[in-house]
């Protein structure tokens, strides 16, 4: 009896403490719905469609509001003006990476995507310099993508026009580009180790986008005590880390510091140059996480976009026909597409932009965090506060994109049919945390899709009107539904 009373008092005190802390924090932060103790506002958010919940809440609380996902507050930015103001006008103050506990437990603050501070800046600077200026050996990145596009076409020919699920084939192409940059070699599309790598990357994307993972990130303690897909995520990340470290050992045996062959060689040379410094960015662990980041960002996001692109082109055959007409006029059938062609193909350029706008691949981006206390729109946001930026609200702004729920390449064309840029085009986010692989992704989307459409007609086994383009999950990324497609040689 006495023990029961004592436990009741302890729980009551903890509850009161939680309420007092939330109340104290809320007085300084932007307005928002009243959170419940411990669970916060989690019951007011649809974990299967977070963007819709944020849109509904913004109608009540405005473009800047506070949401408690668990016991900690997050400031939500909704709409182009406020997202631009934070990420671009106050880029440094909003350049931190917010916490995703389930991922932090695995990556431990290393790599490019989930790191912070000096380690993030140095690792990002090195990776960008290597990707942009190294030239990846004696061939440009564009030549590598063109070669992979031709390999992709040959693989698609093997389907003989029969209905197929393009998921794995479209994952292989961008993954091979990343492999050639990091390891200086590509894989055969039927190589079992390669297919295992693709499968792991697909699994990770689906797990990270699931409602369960949103729960794990908001209540991280459950990952220590309950089974679930977070355990599979840890296993997959561990596999990728060991896979990358094995490649490092192979490179060490044949390293020529005067003739770096790929990203690994460049990293090993940097490690040798910095061996007397205690820099965290020059460690094997940081390299392994950085490489897995490049794999994830360079493979899964691009392959998902390619898959979604083909689904939309099947759904809108009139758009596909106009793109193929432009390909015939500008490129023809006797040479491979190149990046210079893009400036002469305004309709194709508009279609690619509209695909990325419409699919809204990363609806809330990755969480940001404030690197210092900042007064923002008359609110005082403490250092280290998690910041959620709604990219959906930018890409679906109805003033910039009339009828944003409709797929319409006209959103990026002027009255003369010329390509029209938009300041609201934020599929790669913006500011200091903009996707490090943006240039490569844009190149791959153009070269892969134009090469496919140059060589094949696309046919759907079902009526295009019956194709559903609604994502099956829309957490970290928007994953398209599975579909069948026929590649009919031109």
UniProtKB/TrEMBL annotation:
Biological process annotations from GO: organic acid metabolic process; xenobiotic metabolic process
Gene Ontology cellular component terms for the protein in this record: endoplasmic reticulum membrane
Its EC number(s): 1.14.14.1
Binding-site residues for heme, renumbered to this chain: 435
Intracellular or extracellular location(s): Endoplasmic reticulum membrane; Microsome membrane
Cofactors, names only: heme
Signal peptide: 1-25
Gene3D superfamilies: Cytochrome P450
Record bears the keyword Translocase: no
InterPro entries: Cyt_P450 (IPR001128), Cyt_P450_CS (IPR017972), Cyt_P450_E_grp-I (IPR002401), Cyt_P450_sf (IPR036396), Cytochrome_P450_fam2 (IPR050182)
Main enzyme class: oxidoreductase
CDD domains registered for this protein in UniProt: CYP2C-like
MF annotations from Gene Ontology: heme binding; iron ion binding; oxidoreductase activity, acting on paired donors, with incorporation or reduction of molecular oxygen, reduced flavin or flavoprotein as one donor, and incorporation of one atom of oxygen
Coarse class of the protein's main subcellular location: endoplasmic reticulum
Membrane topology: Peripheral membrane protein
Keyword Nucleotidyltransferase assigned: no
Domain of life: Eukaryota
Keywords: Endoplasmic reticulum, Heme, Iron, Membrane, Metal-binding, Microsome, Monooxygenase, Oxidoreductase, Signal
Similarity comment: Belongs to the cytochrome P450 family.
Protein name, UniProt field: unspecific monooxygenase
Source lineage: Eukaryota, Metazoa, Chordata, Craniata, Vertebrata
